[in-house]
């Protein structure tokens, strides 16, 4: 969502052990190709009032998408202080472990009904902005209605913001 110039371009990353493929994912150039990311994991939280649940993207720091993103950019000598890392951190949740991920997903599940109108309320101006941004990228809606895509993007972003708020609250309380 925060990437300024939306382009659809990717590379395929395959890792092999001997002749066996053990990992397959996409590597996407970002920030005008100054850096690259491995697509983060896409997760769903099944909440009662949403038919298919709510989804978001995250990295778990001890799993391959995060490790490979670091590796590729270290090899390319790309600094994490760069503008590109702000894109990645704005649109994804970062967890230390799967256990931490499960903890925050349970918090979202347990509190969704109480906070959905305040934390997950869609902003029509943001949806319109995203719709225009998607149109500028050249997408004509082949994957679906552009407005629906924009709404889903905003829902994901609001969920990421909410989880980060929970993480921040918990880190402040533990100090």
In short:
With 175 residues, the chain is α+β, with helices and mostly antiparallel strands. It has helices at 64-75, 83-91, 98-119, 124-136, 146-173, and strands spanning 11-17, 20-30, 35-38, 41-45, 54-60, 93-95.
Question: What would you say this structure looks like, in words?
Answer:
The structure is a single chain. The chain has helices at 64-75, 83-91, 98-119, 124-136, 146-173; strands at 11-17, 20-30, 35-38, 41-45, 54-60, 93-95. The chain is globular and about 50 Å long. Helix 3 (98-119) crosses helix 5 and helix 4 (124-136) packs across helix 5 (146-173). It has five helices and six strands. The longest helix is centred in the C-terminal third of the chain and has 28 residues, at 146-173.
């Amino acid at each position: 969502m925060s990437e300024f110039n939306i382009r659809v371009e990717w590379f395929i990353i395959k890792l092999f052990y001997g002749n066996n493929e053990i990992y397959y994912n996409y590597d996407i150039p970002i920030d005008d190709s100054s850096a690259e990311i491995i697509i983060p994991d896409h997760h769903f939280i099944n909440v009662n009032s949403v038919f298919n649940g709510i989804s978001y993207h995250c990295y778990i720091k001890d799993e391959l998408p995060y490790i490979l993103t670091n590796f590729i950019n270290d090899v390319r000598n790309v600094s994490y202080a760069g503008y590109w890392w702000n894109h990645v951190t704005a649109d994804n949740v970062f967890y230390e472990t799967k256990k931490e991920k499960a903890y925050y997903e349970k918090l979202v599940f347990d509190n969704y009904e109480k906070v959905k109108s305040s934390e997950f309320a869609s902003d029509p101006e943001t949806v319109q902005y995203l719709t225009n941004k998607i149109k500028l990228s050249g997408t004509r809606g082949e994957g679906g209605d552009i407005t629906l895509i924009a709404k889903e993007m905003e829902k994901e972003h609001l969920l990421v913001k909410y989880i980060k708020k929970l993480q921040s609250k918990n880190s402040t309380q533990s100090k």
